[in-house]
Design goal:
Layout lengths: L12 H12 L6 H7 L6 E8 L2 E5 L6 H10 L2 E5 L4 H13 L4 E5 L18 E9 L2 E5 L7 E4 H8 L11 E6 L7 H17 L11 H9 L3 H22 L4 H20 L3 H27 L9 H27 L3
Antiparallel strand pairs: 1-2, 3-8, 4-5, 4-8, 5-6, 6-7
Protein name: Peptidase
Pfam family, one: BtrH_N
């Protein structure tokens, strides 16, 4: 059985699965619009949560939130399931496919044999769409693959029940009902922007590890790495930060570029031309993130120039935080003025 499903690659897996599932039901939204509607541009550094032995840094909310926030805002009914047993997980997936329902599935990237070797690491929050089954092979739309791929039932179960940090536990999700009315995008876009501004600059309150506060907190921590951990562990901590920024998901700069593209699209949708200027500013901030990652990489490899070290990296991160605070404050003001 094979469902007629359009595969379109994307910059980020959950954005791509969400966009492609919406497209299947006749709602053709861009990836930046999906990401923007979910109000998911963020920044957190959690020293008490570990991935591969190091603190988790993220530039988006928890996995699953992009899909759930976007569909809820647009008025779609959705379902998701977790499983304790492989047989139950496989049975539910096969049942949905037999009903003609494409299914989003969360998997561990390490167990996807079609992935290039450099991408097969233990990351258990990758999203794919399953749209059919032929014999023992599942038909898969992976948003970061250029073409549709196949995955054996054995590899599918290994990936769905990968162990380690954030085990997916066979998670699948799908759309079960459509909005009663065509979504009215202008007010929804404005609401999503204000929600993202609030989450970034207001909701963190005194908590130092989330939202805009993260820049100052992590900016203070990075210069302490060499004394706190020693040269080798300090480099590994910094390397983990770069990995979370540039390799896992879309990363810091990538998500900034996506949201900048969303703001440019939002300018046309809402009729607020000032969003174009804010989009350009956020693109510049994304460039600063990329420069920060490049400098941090050189420090990790002990190849940096004399004037770039852990201390200057901390100062650079604080400077990026100042730019983002100003941008989100201005963005909130502009959108509120046009409500």
């Amino acid at each position: 059985m094979e469902i007629a499903f359009d595969h379109r690659p994307s910059a980020h897996c959950e954005n791509g699965v969400t966009r492609n599932l919406l497209h299947f039901y006749g709602y053709d939204y861009s990836e930046p619009l999906v990401f923007g509607l979910s109000a998911s541009l963020y920044f957190v550094h959690l020293p008490f949560v570990r991935l591969a032995g190091f603190p988790v840094t993220s530039f988006r909310p928890l996995p699953g939130m992009i899909f759930s926030r976007t569909t809820r805002l647009l008025g779609f009914g959705t379902r998701q399931h977790h499983f304790l047993r492989h047989t139950s997980a496989e049975r539910k997936l096969d049942q949905l496919l037999a009903e003609g329902t494409p299914v989003g599935v969360v998997v561990g990237m390490y167990f996807l044999p079609y992935m290039p070797a450099e991408y097969r690491f233990h990351f258990n929050a990758h999203n794919i769409t399953v749209f059919g089954k032929e014999g023992d092979d599942y038909l898969v739309s992976d948003p970061i693959a250029m073409e549709k791929v196949r995955l054996s039932a054995r590899d599918m179960m290994r990936a769905r029940f990968a162990r380690g940090t954030y085990p997916p536990m066979g998670k699948l999700y799908y759309i079960r009902s459509l909005p009663r009315h065509t979504p009215d995008l202008p007010p929804l876009v404005r609401r999503a922007i204000l929600t993202n501004c609030n989450r970034m600059i207001h909701q963190p309150g005194p908590v130092p590890w989330v939202g805009i506060n993260t820049f100052d907190y992590l900016g203070r921590q990075i210069p302490r790495f060499p004394q706190q951990y020693g040269p080798k562990r300090a480099a590994l901590h910094l390397a983990q930060l770069i990995r979370m920024m540039e390799e896992i998901g879309t990363g810091g700069a990538g998500f900034r570029f996506l949201y900048a593209a969303f703001l440019q699209e939002a300018a046309d949708v809402t009729g607020i031309p000032a969003l174009n200027e804010l989009s350009a500013r956020l693109t510049d901030i994304g460039d600063q993130w990329r420069r920060f990652a490049a400098d941090a990489g050189r420090v990790c490899k002990n190849r940096s120039s004399a004037d770039v070290d852990y201390r200057t990296l901390g100062a650079d991160l604080k400077a990026i935080g100042g730019m983002e605070r100003t941008l989100f404050t201005d963005l909130e003001r502009v959108v509120k003025a046009h409500k």
